[in-house]
Design brief:
Elements (H helix, E strand, L loop, with lengths): L3 E5 L2 H8 L5 E6 L8 E7 L5 E10 L6 H13 L2 H14 L3 H19 E11 L4 H12 L4 E8 L14 E8 L17 H7 L6 E2 L2 E2 L15 E2 L21 H11 L5 E4 L6 H8 L3 E6 L2 H15 L5 E4 L5 H10 L1 H11 L3 E2 L2 H5 L7 E5 L10 E8 L5 H14 L3 E6 L5 H8 L3 E4 L4 E4 L1 E5 H5 L32
Parallel strand pairs: 1-12, 1-13, 2-5, 2-11, 6-10, 11-12, 16-17, 17-20
Antiparallel strand pairs: 3-4, 5-7, 6-7, 8-9, 14-15, 15-16, 18-19
Helix pairs in contact: 1-4, 2-3, 2-4, 3-4, 3-5, 4-5, 7-8, 10-11, 13-14
The structure holds S-adenosylmethionine (SAM).
Length: 488
């Protein structure tokens, strides 16, 4: 039985190495758009509202560099002729620009998506007018002009008015099939007919074609065939309960429309840029199987938390790519120390701190956990500060952590390390006395050293039990929740 899967890593490598030809029924991708913005992920702050404590979720900016040059040469030498020709033409026109860097990042992944899509499958590429014209040509060259099905326009309300232009209020979703025998069911997306149409069709208005009278025309009982412009779905408002703080989070209704019209129950849906997991959640809700990929560990953690809050333990899936043992953690630390840091903090139940804040006044802090233990009426929010180290460690770092704790007036400091601590480190930590919790009447070591191995063997930070982590997703209750169980 095919299992639901969540992959942590670069989608190109994962598609290439883990995914079979012709194995996916529906692909939805919402890649970074080349919008030139850095997106920040927001967390709940001390008071439970959205805080300004942000960290960069991913950087939506592309620059032409040696890597782009390498990928360009690789692509033009190995891709099918039409796709290679388009990329060469783009290069002539765009030269070594950021847009070209973006397109050369997208091209090899799209080729892989073509390979993994079933002949009956459909792909939806979500983009905006910044790059949609280039992406359409690229898609034409990979999927074939004849397999272009729709340019969907997602129109939404919004704020902000440009001085000398029309307001930009839509995204583009390019829809392609792999062959001309693809699945499409318009019924779940049918819309109510206009009153004037209902009125007009309520009596005979003539229906004679080629001399034959076909009699009175009927309207479809489920409503009008859906148009290629979606006007009835709004983005998630920044203050909405459904918003999890992931900056580019798409509304579930949008994904539900795509999934319901282009797949059947039990089909397999792939989202190779899955962000905070809107596709995954919608697929699970609609009884499809799913595969989600994201390069940011923070996205993976957010999806895990969203799945468990929405479906409890009814949703079974495998996580692939996130370290599952010490060796995996060492490899991740070597490959990408920044992702290692995020991953380790998540494993410890902490929130990472904004990268920019780390460089500034909050130097020496990688993550934090808040708790409150002045029951019953106390409002003081208390702080645990974390430092993460993947390299060599020594006693000076524990002294430094003590200094940071005093500077920040925090209650507990945690030193999270991949390597084992030295004896002097353990002694230095032990000399830091205890934090006394008034409500629990209990002492907790003020400086705690935890290794990654400790975390794998279920040891955890010692503190009064009231921590907060990600903003909570709403629980999805379906009448037959028992049946939403894919995988073993
Ligand atoms: C626009 S967001 C997707 C948002 C998503 N549709 C949602 O509703 O939450 C794009 C995501 O692609 C991820 N990403 C960027 N490059 C990637 C790559 N090469 N492989 C996998 N994921 C990538 C980013 O980390 C980010 O989470």
């Amino acid at each position: 039985m095919i299992k639901n899967r969540l992959y942590f890593g670069d989608n190109l490598g994962i598609l290439k190495h883990y995914m079979d030809d012709n194995s996916i029924d529906l692909i939805y991708l919402d890649p970074p758009f080349q919008s030139g913005k850095d997106y920040n992920i927001l967390f709940k702050d001390k008071n439970g509202s959205v805080s300004t404590a942000q960290i960069k979720a991913f950087e939506d900016t592309w620059q032409w560099d040696n890597d782009s040059e390498y990928h360009y040469l690789q692509f033009v030498q190995s891709a099918p002729k039409e796709a290679a020709d388009i990329i060469k033409a783009f290069r002539e026109f765009l030269q070594r620009t950021d847009m070209m860097a973006y397109l050369i990042m997208m091209a090899p992944g799209l080729l892989e998506m073509y390979r993994v899509l079933k002949p009956s499958g459909t792909i939806y590429l979500h983009c905006d007018p910044t790059a949609s014209h280039f992406l359409k040509l690229l898609m034409d060259s990979i999927f074939g002009i004849g397999n272009f099905r729709n340019e969907l326009v997602w129109y939404y309300r919004g704020a902000g008015i440009p001085k000398n232009d029309f307001s930009r209020r839509h995204d583009i979703i390019l829809r392609y099939s792999k062959t001309d025998t693809y699945y499409f069911n318009p019924d779940p997306a049918r819309q109510p007919y206009a009153d004037a149409t209902v009125e007009r069709f309520s009596h005979y208005i003539g229906n004679i074609r080629k001399g034959h009278d076909y009699g009175r025309q009927k309207l479809h009982k489920l409503g009008k065939h859906p148009d290629d412009v979606f006007t009835d779905i709004q983005p998630i408002a920044p203050s909405a309960r459904a918003r999890l703080g992931y900056p580019t989070q798409k509304p579930e209704e949008l994904l539900e429309r795509i999934i319901l019209t282009s797949s059947r129950e039990g089909d397999i849906i792939l989202d190779p840029f899955c962000g905070c997991g809107t596709t995954v959640i919608a697929a699970q809700k609609l009884k499809r199987k799913w595969v989600g990929i994201d390069i940011t560990h923070l996205a993976i953690s957010l999806i895990q938390s969203r799945l468990s809050q929405s479906f409890g333990n009814k949703c079974k899936y495998d996580i692939i790519g996130a370290p599952a043992d010490l060796k995996g953690a060492e490899e991740l630390a070597k490959r990408d120390p920044f992702q290692f840091e995020w991953w380790a903090l998540t494993l410890a139940g902490a929130m990472p701190i904004d990268r920019d804040r780390k460089r500034g006044a909050d130097k020496g802090i990688d993550g934090f956990i808040y708790f409150g233990d002045d029951f019953p009426n106390g409002k003081k929010i208390k702080t645990i500060l974390l430092q993460v180290k993947s390299g060599h460690v020594g006693v000076a770092q524990i002294r430094d952590l003590k200094g940071v704790l005093a500077r920040e007036n925090a209650e507990i400091g945690v030193f999270l390390t991949l390597k084992s601590p030295t004896k002097p480190m353990i002694v230095e930590a032990a000399e830091a006395d205890f934090y006394h919790s008034p409500s629990w009447n209990k002492d907790y070591p003020r400086i705690q050293i935890l290794t990654i191995e400790d975390l794998f063997s279920n040891k955890s930070i010692l503190y009064p039990p009231t921590g907060r982590t990600f903003k909570k997703a709403e629980r999805i209750i379906t009448p037959d929740a028992e049946q939403i169980e894919f995988g073993e």
